[in-house]
Design goal:
By secondary structure, the protein is α/β, with parallel strands linked by helices. The chain folds into 2 domains: 161 residues, MoaB/Mog-like domain (Molybdenum Cofactor Biosythetic Enzyme, Chain A, 3-Layer(aba) Sandwich), CATH 3.40.980; 69 residues, Alpha-Beta Plaits. Helix content is 37%, strand content 28%. Helix 3 packs across helix 4. It is elongated and about 75 Å long. The protein starts with 7 loop residues before the first strand and ends in an 8-residue tail after the last helix. 31% of the residues are buried.
């Protein structure tokens, strides 16, 4: 994995009627986002959820691939009639949708020739020129074409494939986070947080998130940056704000 000097940004495109209907709860976004940041220094800046409709897949894949360094799709690469991600992406990039010989060989060995039916053979079809993302769990590979990486929707299978993504990715700077929990409400520190954010604009990202502790509302102020020096300085100034306003810090 080569290291880039600039920030590397990604988008996630979740494809599947079952997610939109609420029948299936998405668990992949949090995993992919965390894994990419920790292991590759890549930040996920946008997530979209769309149905299994060819026109929508084509539009969103092309749109996101122009805006981001990488696009990760999940879902729609299985053996059934509604798994149309692969053929849709082939149409998006105007390439043939065909059997990948390496994928075919992997699946044939996995299932055995007698059980390697037409439905299973479908999982070896993908856009021409794709590179495989190997699958140690259930054999059926994902694939990469241009800057789009297509992965299965089943969380356990997707997780097992993650280490095989690294060779396709350019590494950016890992974003570090610090959380300072304050025994107060957001409105009491809103002005100070805005001033602090302006002071560290484009250096540290500051977010505030209310939570309940011992029956009282408190606030988690989360600081995120790829620069440890700025992060520590911002945290120090945040704690000074808390001290000046006589706010108890819950996680000293």
């Amino acid at each position: 994995m080569k290291k880039a000097k600039k920030k590397i940004k990604a988008a996630i495109l979740i494809i599947g009627n079952e997610v939109l209907s609420g029948r299936t709860q998405d668990l992949n976004v949090s995993f992919i986002s965390h894994w990419l940041n920790i292991n590759c220094g890549i930040s996920v800046d946008e997530v979209r959820i769309i149905p299994d409709i060819e026109k929508k897949i084509i539009f969103n894949v092309l749109d996101l691939s122009k805006k981001f360094n990488y696009v990760f799709t999940t879902g729609g690469i299985g053996p059934t009639h509604d798994d149309i991600t692969s053929v849709s992406i082939a149409k998006a990039f105007k390439v043939k949708y065909e059997i990948n010989k390496k994928a075919y060989s992997i699946l044939e060995r996995y299932y055995g020739k007698d059980k390697f039916n037409d439905e299973r053979k479908k999982m070896s079809k993908m856009p021409a020129g794709s590179s495989l993302v190997l699958n140690p769990s259930s054999a059926a590979p994902g694939f990469k074409i241009k800057n789009v990486i297509c992965l299965p929707g089943v969380p356990s299978i997707l997780k097992s494939m993650a280490p095989n993504l690294k060779k396709y990715l350019v590494k950016g700077s890992v974003v570090i986070s610090r959380s300072v929990n304050l025994n107060t409400v957001e409105s009491y520190i809103a002005i100070e947080l805005e001033a602090l954010q302006n002071k560290f604009l484009n250096k540290v990202e500051i977010g505030s998130y209310p939570f309940f502790k011992l029956g009282r509302v408190s606030v988690a102020v989360v600081l995120r940056s790829a620069n440890r020096t700025y992060l520590k300085l911002c945290e120090k100034q945040l704690k000074k704000i808390a001290k000046d306003k006589k706010i108890i810090i819950l996680n000293k």
